[in-house]
Amino acid sequence: MRHSWSSTLTYVLVTAGATIGFGATWRFPYLVGENGGGAYVIVFIIAMFVIGIPMILVENVIGRRASVNALDAYDPKYQRKNFSKFWKIVGYTGLLGAYGIIAYYMVLGGWVLTYIFNILSGNLDISSPIDKEITQSFYSENIEYSPLMITFYTLIFVVLNYIVLIRGLSEGLEKAMKFLMPLLMLCLIGVVIRNLTLEGASEGIKFYLYPDFSKINAKLFIAVLGQVFFALSLGFAVMITLSSFLDKKENMVKTALLTAMINTVIAILAGFMIFPSLFTFGLEPDSGPRLVFEVLPIVFSKMHFGSVVALAFFVLLLTAAFTTSITLYEPLITVAQEKLKFSRKKATFWVLFLTFILGNLPCILAYGPLRDVRILDKNIFDAFDFISGNIFFVLTALGAAIFVGWVLKDEAKKELSQGFTNKTVIDIWFYYVKFIVPIVILIVFYNGIFT
Questions:
Q1: Membrane-crossing residues (predicted)?
Q2: Which of 315, 312, 316, 346 has its CA nearest to residue 332?
Q3: Domain residue spans in the chain?
Q4: How far apart are CA 45 and CA 56, in angstroms?
Q5: What is the dotted CATH code of the domain comprising 8-450?
Q6: Which residue, 106, 189, 387, 390, has most beta carbons within 10 Å?
Q7: Mean pLDDT across the stretch 48-68?
């Protein structure tokens, strides 16, 4: 008999953990910084509810109705409806997207561990003010030109995932999230409070919350929509897999709303722990992906008790990354269990081992011996990010929306109505997903590839 989540709260914690990760705590703040602050935040909140929640429900419907792995979820046998097996291609693209994200995501976890251990050892000394030359030098020496060390820290992060994942859903994922989510919130609130008490915090808050409406344009909307899909782990087969263990009586509309709300709150709080400190010490907010690794250590070095705040911040990043990584592996592990008939322990070992060899190592070496290897004019690390994030996850999300609207049809509405009885809302969601969402996804796909 297949496992079910022990409670609604547990499921919400797991799905929230799956959607927070680096998307909310690392990617969201630097995108805000690059796109004019408050304008991006407002559009993000709107997009989260206009596109994010409908797409969570799309994947929830597919997953719970089939109650199998993310590959067989597109099989007519498990959806109990006659349609072409061609649709299993969508399952494959979702799994490829999950693999692509895991390939570089675990390496980012290794980077964060590198900073934590170097702060603890004093090798990265931020007990007194430092400048960008020092942080850039540290980043180059310890991230870009130390493949053996990054391999070691990445392997530690992978092993931590393995320890949780071999225990299964109830003893592994559920128990881990009950500990990790409160830890994440504790670290987050602590760093936010410290930053909001800085003398120049008001300027950072103004940048973060005051919208410059001249910044709102088509390009901004596209950037926000891409972030919503990334932040909610849509198109990676994660939500389909997690919802396949969901009880038929569960109100999926409520759980989708809670998941989106928690993700949005965490992302917005992440901005409050970054922008007040940047403006207090006169640093630019538009530093891009390296904001966390090269700019924030400078900020922490200029604070009272900066080493403690820095440590809490990087522990927060690691915790957020961990809550997502253990769910990113789950689609591949579940497929290995149900399609190859592997035990949980065997499936976990082979998935983590193969993704480490075929994904994590190439991404690590992209900054070392393989730095000259180019794919789509990008190094291997960036290529994994681009291909999974701009191709596989978008195609999977598009396929899922079309599958629900044009293949499952009334069966999709019936599935959503279990636990939720507002027929008007269900009808609006269905036709919105059927006609509007595919167009929006195609626009995101076009702009992600060709602009």
A1: 39-58, 89-117, 148-167, 179-198, 218-245, 257-283, 303-329, 349-367, 387-408, 429-449
A2: 346
A3: 8-450
A4: 15
A5: 1.20.1740.10
A6: 106
A7: 95
